[in-house]
Design goal:
By secondary structure, the chain is α/β, with parallel strands linked by helices. About 50% of the residues lie in helices and about 15% in strands. Strands 1, 2, 3, 4, 5, 6, 7, 8, 9, 10 and 11 form an eleven-stranded mixed beta sheet that branches. The two termini are about 35 Å apart. The structure holds pseudouridine-5'-monophosphate and manganese (II) ion. The site of manganese (II) ion has 3 residues, from loops.
């Protein structure tokens, strides 16, 4: 297996300095070019401005990259869905073939842990799909969160999924779910899902203490830090839910299945909301990056005591 860890990132990991990893499917399959590249670079800058080091993760020409360069990000963003969407099962195939891959949440968790990174920021995680009792469509993201001690900072999950079943699955997997400055599991485009959370934390240091405790326990299970989209960017719940229902109906008519489901729904929702969902998406990813960097700074301090 070929792996390229940027010098800065490997130094920071060795020293226990704050590092935040980032996924790349959001670049290739989650947003259109050039907003995808622009957002990815801005997100990295936000992490730096908040005192941590970003490490975007991807596979480029058969090499697992931990800490993609600006050129790598431009390359992935331009190729878009021409890059293989890499979850857990796809990584070895793309590496062995010398191909290009964009890592999903599950893929990014695996490569983050391989490099020794404990905190990862993204937009939304995959989950249990609606009608999963018939389709069996449950994202690998949940299994990977359940088997790696990593903190994933996200804006909850989209209601293209069944959020109640997703929460049940996270409980089965033993994933600690923390509402960051919220009592409710956020629904990505909106802060509210109606699903109450047991654990709420309001400061980065409180989350960092949980992560430090899990490290000391040698836990092998992940943590989900759910951060609501900033109020100013929240979408109208009725509008977004109508778009999601229409996208799901289109998916059923077209018979979309397997790994194409999530990218199809994301793209359809974007079309149906006239691009409004993209603005919300960009705003929440940036906010998650900031929160993840702040948590990483506190986590690093607690590790050096
Ligand atoms: N949800 C989003 N945006 C995304 C994804 C999910 O709101 O970009 C991407 C992430 O990379 C996630 C993946 O890990 O889709 C989940 O795909 P699947 O449902 O096929 O497991
Ligand atoms: Mn799936």
């Amino acid at each position: 297996m070929k792996i390229r860890i940027s010098t800065k990132v490997s130094e920071a990991i060795k020293n226990g300095d704050p590092v935040v990893s980032l996924e790349s499917t959001i670049i290739s399959h989650g947003m259109p070019y050039p907003q995808n590249v622009q957002t990815a670079l801005e997100v990295e800058k936000i992490i730096c401005d908040n005192g941590a080091l970003p490490a975007t993760i991807a596979i480029i020409k058969g090499e697992a990259v931990i800490g993609a360069t600006a050129e790598d990000i431009e390359y992935l963003g331009k190729k878009g869905s021409g890059v293989t969407k890499c979850g857990c099962r796809d990584i070895p195939v793309v590496l062995a073939r010398g191909g290009d891959g964009a890592t999903t949440v599950s893929g990014t968790i695996i490569l983050s842990k391989k490099a020794g990174i404990d905190i990862f920021a993204t937009g939304g995680i995959g989950g249990v799909h609606r009608m999963a009792f018939k389709t069996f469509d449950i994202s690998r993201d949940l299994k990977e969160l359940g088997s790696n001690n990593i903190a994933v900072v996200c804006a909850g999950a989209k209601s293209i999924l069944d959020l109640n079943l997703t929460m049940e699955y996270l409980e089965t997997e033993g994933v600690t779910v923390i509402g960051y400055q919220t009592d409710e599991f956020p629904a990505f485009y909106t802060g509210k899902s109606g699903i109450k959370l047991e654990v709420r934390m309001d400061a980065p240091i409180d989350v960092a203490q949980v992560l430090q405790t899990k490290k000391e326990m040698q836990s092998t299970v992940g943590t989900l830090v759910a951060v609501p989209i900033p109020k100013a960017y929240e979408m109208d719940a009725t509008e977004i839910n109508q778009a999601i229902d229409a996208a799901l109906a289109d998916m059923n008519v077209l018979g979309i299945a397997g790994k194409k489901v999530t990218p199809f729904l994301l793209d359809r929702v974007k079309q149906l909301t006239g691009g409004k969902s993209l603005d919300a998406n960009i705003a929440l990813v940036k906010n998650n990056a900031k929160v993840a960097a702040q948590i990483a700074v506190e986590y690093s301090k607690s590790g050096k005591h």
